[in-house]
Amino acid sequence: MKIQVLAIKKRIEDIQGAEAFPCSQQLIIYKGKVLKDETTMEENNVIENSFLVIMLTKVCNEVL
Predict the structure, then answer these.
(1) CA atoms of 59 and 51, how far apart (whole Å)
(2) How far apart are alpha carbons 64 and 48 in whole angstroms?
(3) Phi/psi-derived region of residue 17, left when phi > 0, alpha when psi is between -120 and 50, beta in every other case
(4) How far apart are CA 61 and CA 35, in angstroms?
(5) Which of 11, 22, 37, 60 has the lowest tally of Cβ within 10 angstroms?
(6) Domains of the chain
């Protein structure tokens, strides 16, 4: 699969909504490893029907 991680994040954002799952806050984890946006699923040895974990990073809106 030559699909980039970033493309998957954008697809999740499109399906789930930008407010709920903004692409910029998503982390995709496979076998305990956070996948980098510029890599492909093939480079990360992700096979079809594998289990991926999607996490969101927290945004800090602290005003000083």
Answers:
(1) 26
(2) 46
(3) left
(4) 26
(5) 60
(6) 5-56 (3.10.20.90)
Sheet holding 33-34, edge to edge: 33-34, 26-30, 53-56
Q: Could you tell me the two tokens for 30? A: 């496979």
The residue type of 7 is A
C-alpha separations of 23 from 17, 47, 63 in Å: 10, 22, 24
Interior/surface letters 27-43, b for 16+ CB within 10 angstroms, e for the rest:
ebebeeeebeeeebbee
Which pLDDT score, from 0 to 100, does residue 59 have? 74
Each residue of 23-55: pLDDT tens digit? 999 999 999 999 999 999 999 999 999 999 999
Would you say 5 and 41 are in contact if contact means Cβ atoms under 8 Å apart? yes
